[in-house]
Amino acid sequence: MTDALAGLAGELDDGLLVTDPQVVAAHAGDQVPGLGSGTPLALVRPRTTQDVATVLRWASAHGVPVVPRGAGSGLAGAANAVDGAVVVSLAAMDRVLEVNPADRYVVVQPGAVTAAVDAAARAHGLSYPPDPASKDFSTIGGNIATNAGGLCCVKYGVTADFVLALEVVLADGSIVRTGHRTRKGVAGYDLTHLMVGSEGTLGVVTEATLRLVPAPLAAATLVAFFPTLESAGEAVAAIAADGLGPSLLEIMDATTIRVVDEAHRMDLDRDAAALVLAQCDTGPRAAEDIAELAVRCEAAGAGFVASTDDPAEGEALLAARRAAYPSLERLGATLLDDVCVPVSALPAAIAAIEAIAERYELLIGTFGHAGDGNLHPTIVHDATSADRAAKAFDDILTAALELGGTITGEHGVGRLKAHRLADELGPAGIRLQHAVKAAFDPAGILNPGAVLPPLP
Hints:
Layout: H1 2-11, E1 17-18, H2 21-26, E2 42-44, H3 49-62, E3 66-69, E4 86-89, E5 96-100, E6 105-108, H4 114-122, E7 126-127, H5 140-146, H6 153-156, E8 163-169, E9 175-179, H7 191-195, E10 204-211, E11 213-214, E12 220-226, H8 229-241, E13 248-253, H9 254-264, E14 274-280, H10 286-300, E15 304-308, H11 311-322, H12 324-329, E16 333-336, E17 339-340, H13 346-360, E18 363-369, E19 374-381, H14 386-402, H15 421-440
Parallel strand pairs: 2-4, 3-4
Antiparallel strand pairs: 1-2, 5-6, 6-10, 7-11, 8-9, 8-10, 12-14, 12-15, 13-14, 13-18, 16-19, 17-19, 18-19
């Protein structure tokens, strides 16, 4: 393999192929804790689509696994390398190639940072809305690979809702373009959205055309504390049913409220069972719209409701939600889950998580995107409770499925949850997924072990 690797080096510009063990190891995984990764053969840092195609042609000819990665901010192990793989880091392909205000799209390379893409759009009075918590360092390629979401999905949707077209390098090194830059287009199968969420198992995205929308107007923000989970769920359900359209609708459970307040002394109500945060970005109507949300919260039994249309005060109210994961993280090792249930099942989901925490004698803080039912139960553990944490993690997935939900709302399956995918899709669904994989990657070299469990 050393000679073959030398052959690959000869096909690439100097410096693109890296074999230094420390540098390669630093690119061998993402941010999921405790999952482990293999020992890659090498790292390639392509600068062009042709560089990616060269790597994949070589890998296909030699039967070498290829694991694509962006910033490595993923939380499901999709970027965790396997032994003998070539890791392809797309971070250097980071350019915003075009902003088209007339047709409202932007063309970017996969290594472009999410926040930078939005900033480029806002220079033209437009916006790229998907806003994962990692948007200041996560990349568009990684967002596409996992179909990333974020705080504002309740109004604007997830990454898939903004992907118009892709340039993709397939396993054999061939280059295909999918989708359209037009507002409509239904020619052939929708390969674009098959790629979105495929976590590097079907091809490597080298360019993306993304839909833009007008930049949001000024926002108003609300915070409400509830005495029970049921009352918080009732408020969220009422807001959704009435079509009030907040741009953000978040929830924190009692454990998370307490942990955040202990860490940051925000004067939160530690006796509350839940905290709901909402925001409306409708400009002159924002204060009026947020007042409608306040009425729904009060009718559901909120003990305290406050709102503001001052941007600085709004950010201060949102600070508690932004502090949720860091506050839990400081208490020990964390296992961050990502499940999604019907909005009406939110109280039952949080109650089930609390019962799991009690059963395994673990601290689990739950927060997430109430508006679309996406929760992030975060299990805090140490070396003595790691096994219990893993069992609790699995039980949370089971609870989500039993409530009509899914094992992942926005982080992806990766390697972390591949063993549970069949529980959601069923045997026929898994066979169909494998058939799709085989059509795109017959030799199975693209990110092996990610997403799909073995066929029974």
